[in-house]
């Protein structure tokens, strides 16, 4: 088979690996290749600056039909942030690129002369995905214009609408959402950032008569003015959604008597999100009522939620509202919950309330807590989460209440990730003893404090019961509990008995084996400090072990013999000489484990 007779599909696949210039060369090389390479060349048109916009528009206008055929290859068209495409330019793209399936118009992508020549959106009737921002166009009625646009795009399956306006923003009514779904019967994914209008009492008939949007499976709403009636509408309208993301910035102020009287209407629903599996809720201050109402609905109607993410990146009072809303979220779906992620900038006043709520989740296998001012007791979560497999903790301080050698119930935890925490070696010793199935451990920006043995210079972290499949240490620092907290230990040793270590360096051990690292920080000739990590050679390991074999004496002696001095000074990647002697005198950290199959260790910033 000659190159000129290669099938179209194979040529398209080959083109996917080539640069734009290479594709142009192939088009000029063989006429039989031209259709395939033209298609991939024009498949995605991403216009990021005014110069490129003017060039493409000028070519489309001047070349007419010859480029019109190329325009039919365009499937994805992007107008970048602040591009300000004029109404005339937009109409040109609509005429020449009528087969696009994915259109992205970012904030400021269209100019304010949008109405000088009304775009013909019917020409883009093949669109299946639209991402659009109409903010800043001085539209008299922005919701109406959005409805006008989508009324010509009946094939849309995904709509992402962003309202980026600062200050007063247009209000969206129930009627706007109803019109949107009437025009888009095939819509499967809806993401909207809008202000919700107050629902008047007379519009309750719209809610009761709303036809479910059965095709929709993903709903993402970023809203202000959340109200009871909007929750009522969403529960009625979106009965088939599987994924729900709701970010509530503000909620409508209502008297408590109104809330209590009208909440009963929600209970008249036959079901609430019966297929919902994945939920992300993000809330601001003073939206507690909206959150508790949502959790109460989930609980009353037994919503089968599996994965819950709860973002509380805001200031809560310290009267227990944080624990109340978090516990409410867990209890609302405790029977089916498998994964729970919570992120908060606020400390928990009662650090046992959330773990106790988790004890009612018999299927919880994945737990992630991000709260950089919270102190967490690892053993409490292990005690209350019996089947947990993956645990991620990004907290201020990590501790254990029980003794590391306390006779605790064995736990099946397999993966542990700790980041941005201060802790000590007892936590990992406790984990190793209790979690015999631990296979993966990730330590990122963690500070360890411990006691240094004055005879050996070692701060030992004992995980000798753990066989790692993967171990990752990223910018992990070790400090003496009683020493200088400004100077971390610069040497790290990972040791394991009687097992081979397979890693990037392909080192293997026969009997007792170890791998040594030097974590250094040097001042470059120009620029900031350079942090790095270096694997020690066999001779450097021998010298280090010799030094630490008599640590008490050597650390007191700042002078050494000439033979050793040449090993105490090594070149960093910045061509600076680094003196080991001061680093050696601080001691070293060692992590003992049963085995390591693969590792990744870095100290770079």
UniProtKB/TrEMBL annotation:
SUPFAM superfamilies: F-box domain, RNI-like
Listed PROSITE patterns: FBOX
F-box domain span: 1-45
SMART domains: FBOX (SM00256)
Classification via PANTHER family: F-BOX DOMAIN CONTAINING PROTEIN, EXPRESSED (PTHR38926), IM:7136021-RELATED (PTHR38926:SF72)
Protein name: F-box domain-containing protein
């Amino acid at each position: 088979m000659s190159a000129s007779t290669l099938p179209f599909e194979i040529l398209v696949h080959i083109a996917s690996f080539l640069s734009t210039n290479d594709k142009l060369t192939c088009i000029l090389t063989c006429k039989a290749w031209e259709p395939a390479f033209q298609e991939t060349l024009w498949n995605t048109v991403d216009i990021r600056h005014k110069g490129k916009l003017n060039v493409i528009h000028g070519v489309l206008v001047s070349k007419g039909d010859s480029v019109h055929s190329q325009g039919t290859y365009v499937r994805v068209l992007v107008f970048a942030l602040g591009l300000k495409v004029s109404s005339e330019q937009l109409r040109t793209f609509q005429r020449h690129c009528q087969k696009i399936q994915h259109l992205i118009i970012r904030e400021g992508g269209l100019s304010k002369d949008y109405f000088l020549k009304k775009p013909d959106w019917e020409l883009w009737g093949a669109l299946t995905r639209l991402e659009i921002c109409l903010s800043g166009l001085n539209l008299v009625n922005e919701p109406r214009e959005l409805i006008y646009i989508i009324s010509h795009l009946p094939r849309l399956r995904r709509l992402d609408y962003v309202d980026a306006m600062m200050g007063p923003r247009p209000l969206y009514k129930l009627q706007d959402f109803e019109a949107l779904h009437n025009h888009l019967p095939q819509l499967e994914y809806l993401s909207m950032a809008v202000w919700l209008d107050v629902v008047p009492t007379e519009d309750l008939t719209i809610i009761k008569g709303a036809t479910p949007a059965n095709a929709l499976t993903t709903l993402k709403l970023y809203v202000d003015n959340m109200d009871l009636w909007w929750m009522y509408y969403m529960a009625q309208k979106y009965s088939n959604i599987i994924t729900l993301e709701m970010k509530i910035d503000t909620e409508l102020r209502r008297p408590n008597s109104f809330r209590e009287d009208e909440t009963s209407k929600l209970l008249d629903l036959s079901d609430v999100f019966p297929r919902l599996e994945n939920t992300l809720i993000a809330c601001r201050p003073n939206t507690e009522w909206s959150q508790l109402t949502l959790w109460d609905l989930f609980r009353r109607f037994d919503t089968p939620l599996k994965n819950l993410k709860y973002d509380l990146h805001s200031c809560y009072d310290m009267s227990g509202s944080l624990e109340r809303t978090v516990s409410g979220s867990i209890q609302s779906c405790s029977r089916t919950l498998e994964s729970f992620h919570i992120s908060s900038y606020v400390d928990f006043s009662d650090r046992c309330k959330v773990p106790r709520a988790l004890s009612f989740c018999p299927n919880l296998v994945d737990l992630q807590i991000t709260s950089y001012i919270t102190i967490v007791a690892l053993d409490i979560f292990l005690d209350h989460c019996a089947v947990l497999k993956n645990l991620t903790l990004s907290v201020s301080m990590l501790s254990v209440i029980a003794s590391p050698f306390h006779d605790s119930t064995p736990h099946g935890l397999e993966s542990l990730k700790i980041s941005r925490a201060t802790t000590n070696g007892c936590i990992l010793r406790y984990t190793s003893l209790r979690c015999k199935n631990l296979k993966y451990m990730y330590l990122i920006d963690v500070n360890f404090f411990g006691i240094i043995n004055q005879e050996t210079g070692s701060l030992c972290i004992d995980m000798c019961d753990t066989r790692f499949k993967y171990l990752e240490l990223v910018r992990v620092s070790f400090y003496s509990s009683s020493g200088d907290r400004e100077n971390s230990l610069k040497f790290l040793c990972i040791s394991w008995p009687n097992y081979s270590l397979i890693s990037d360096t392909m080192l293997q051990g026969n009997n007792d084996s170890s791998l040594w690292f030097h974590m250094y920080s040097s001042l470059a000739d120009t620029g900031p400090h350079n942090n790095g990590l270096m694997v020690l050679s066999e001779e450097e390991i021998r010298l280090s072990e010799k030094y630490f074999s008599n640590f008490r004496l050597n650390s007191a002696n700042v002078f050494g013999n000439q033979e050793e001095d040449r090993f105490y000074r090594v070149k960093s990647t910045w061509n600076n000489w680094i003196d080991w002697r001061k680093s050696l005198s601080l001691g070293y950290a060692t992590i003992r484990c049963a085995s390591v199959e693969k590792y990744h260790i870095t100290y770079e910033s």
